[in-house]
Design a protein that fits this description.
alpha+beta, 9-stranded antiparallel sheet, 11 helices, 52% helix
């Protein structure tokens, strides 16, 4: 899209896109750190060191360069600055430059910038916290709908009146959400319960550690966040306890059925009683068995595909799911071959979906045309 421009203009636009992307990446680092913790992304306005809370002056916050000049350490407390910060800045800069090459100085390039920024922030948050915040997914879907209505030829490629473009974007978003929602429901039927049995009574507890935003279930040496257990109101955590301490109340052998907002206690030979969870500051005890709900995927992935559909259309939704699955399987296989099986499970599906969507953004139509030509085979001779 830029080939017809004079070399000076060509490189000026590419450089501007790269620098702008690095600056956006610096802001995305703020989003990635603050959003999952429930902190405002604009108050305080200046970035700060997570350890000493030192407000970072602008000359210590220049994308890429400051990290190198400060030798990857806070200027105040000298604590290490993770390499992730310059990586996010560089990655965003490169993606923005690639978008400029792909779309040129057209209004749709700004829609591409927005979508790519959402992909970077959402992927890192998902890896760090196993969540995709609504601000990223549903906020992104709303941005995709607005972009589709305002840009004459949106990223999804459908060309019509503004309201036809909007309807196409909305339908694609609904399809993206619905496809993953169906996968979740089918996965719930096939893999809906995760059951544990212990030969000896094993310690269990539900507590909210200091500084944590949600309770944590601990069984033996294993810990799991509350949000990873309950994804819907019908989910129940069932504990076959040999003993239980709910707040200050002791119970002997009993069965506990725990939901997001209550716990039902059924003592051996006794009647069940249901207690509001808000009145129980902590739970602990010993158990012989435990059953918890399990999801094939999280609803955050469904929300994320609504965002992909709103920006890129229904073909991108199908490609992202297919491509993300292949990427996920490839990375998992590679980690297993390298003897790093535990690493494979640390990456959720969201980043793979994002990668599939980004591949479609840059090469999707060409890839689809190549694949269809391959599927049709060589043309028949005369």
């Amino acid at each position: 899209m830029l080939e017809h421009l004079p070399p000076r203009v060509y490189w000026t636009l590419l450089t501007a896109a790269f620098v702008f992307g690095c600056c956006v990446g610096s802001y995305l680092n703020v989003v990635i750190y603050r959003l999952p913790l429930g902190l405002s992304t604009h108050e305080p306005k200046r970035s700060f060191c997570p350890l000493c809370k030192y407000a970072i002056p602008f000359w210590h916050n220049i994308p890429l360069f400051s990290w190198l000049i400060l030798r990857a350490r806070c200027a105040n407390c000298k604590s290490p600055i993770p390499v992730r910060y310059p990586i996010v800045e560089l990655l965003t800069g490169l993606l923005f430059a690639a978008a400029m090459l792909r779309f040129g100085y057209d209004w749709k390039v700004f829609a591409a910038f927005t979508f790519l920024a959402l992909c970077v922030a959402g992927s890192y948050i998902d890896v760090d916290h196993q969540i995709l915040p609504h601000e990223i997914t549903w906020g992104g879907a709303a941005a995709g709908l607005v972009a589709s209505a305002l840009i004459p030829l949106p990223l999804h490629g459908f060309e019509g009146t503004w309201w036809m473009n909007l309807l196409y974007s909305l339908g694609s978003a609904v399809l993206g959400y619905a496809l993953i929602w169906v996968v979740i429901q089918l996965g719930k039927l096939a893999f809906g319960k995760l059951k544990f049995k212990f030969e000896e009574p094993t310690a269990w507890s539900v507590q909210q550690p200091e500084g944590s935003l949600e309770p944590v279930l601990k069984v033996g040496d294993q810990e799991e966040l509350w949000s990873e257990i309950f994804s819907r109101r019908s989910d129940r955590l069932v504990v076959q306890a040999t003993s239980a301490l709910l707040g200050e109340t002791h119970y002997g052998p009993c069965v506990l059925k725990i939901s997001e907002d209550s716990v039902t206690v059924t003592p051996e030979g006794g009647e069940s009683v249901t207690l509001p969870l808000e009145n129980i500051p902590a739970m602990s005890g010993a158990c012989l068995a435990l059953e918890q709900p399990r999801e094939a995927m999280g609803l955050g992935d469904a929300n994320w595909m609504a965002c992909v559909g709103a920006f890129l259309g229904w073909k991108a939704v199908l490609f992202a799911i297919f491509g993300g699955s292949i990427l996920g399987a490839t990375v998992s296989l590679l980690m297993i071959l390298l003897g790093r099986r535990e690493w494979a499970g640390r990456i959720p599906f969201g980043p793979y979906l994002a990668a599939g969507a980004v591949i479609w953004l840059f090469t999707g139509p060409e890839f689809l045309e190549w694949y269809l030509a391959l599927a049709r085979g060589p043309a028949a001779g005369p």
